[in-house]
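Hello,

Our lab assistant flagged a job as stuck in the queue for most of the afternoon. It eventually completed. Since we weren't sure the result was trustworthy after the delay, we are filing this so someone can double-check. Below is the sequence as submitted and the structure that was eventually returned. Let us know if re-running is recommended.
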Amino acid sequence: MPKIEDETQTPVAAVEIFEELSPDEERERHRLETRVDRALSEGWSALKLLRDRRLYRSTHKTFEEYAKDRFGYNRAHAYRLIQAAGVIENLSPNGRQNEEMSPNGRHLLPRSERLCRELAKLPSTAQPIVWEKVLEVSGDAAPTASVVRSIVEQLKQKPRLLASDYCLEGEVFFLQRLVGVEQKYNGCWAIAIEVENRFTVKAAVYDGTLELRQENMKPIDSEQSQMEIKDIYRRLKRLMECQLDPIDEAQVEVLCRRPSFTSRQKQALTTMEEIYGIERNKA
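-- returned structure --
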């Protein structure tokens, strides 16, 4: 079974022993506790079957009306109990309840709808994994909703990746999903300039730098395109150091959105370099 890293330090309440039970009494206690557990969850499952099989239709038009009249459950509560029944099915071997103990010998199944509600936030395949972790963390104490919630949240959180896990220094990519003042760069290309030991990528654009997350970066697969863009970037940076005419500024921005460059566009760049006195072979 996959391991889930536990970063919580949940205190386990100490259980004071008032009087020792004999082995027979321990077994009887477990048998009766299991019956209580089963009674709760079997009631949830029965409610689910009444809904699924529409066994209310001889007296009521809707399941909601039936649950209210017969059991006093409002719509929200009735469906929470049905949801809990689904969780119990996911936690039970082969979808059936049994009287086997969990690995730590305690609390085979959740004892309240509130616990099931937290587990229901996860896919069905993840629910047994989380429940075993809950049992491990809780020890001899009854699991609480707060313990379940904390472990569920840990599983739902996406691990933070280092920038070096998805980007290399010098890599060229297009920008996307930027918002606010940075959204003007969407569709432009950028070049990674700082990657190591960072959770974001520092990237160069034609008129400055940006801090980017992985979702802001759309890869450029062609090595030829990457090399061509890097060369154009170096030339544009030199142009941007000049006091450009607004028409030339507009041409620069057009070039910064191109995945490839036509002969006409390259000639326009050369012409601007000549106008502003920039030597092509200047480092």
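-- support follow-up --
The delay was a queue issue, not a problem with the job. The result is valid. The radius of gyration is 32 Å. Residues 1-15, 95-107 have pLDDT under 50 and may be disordered.
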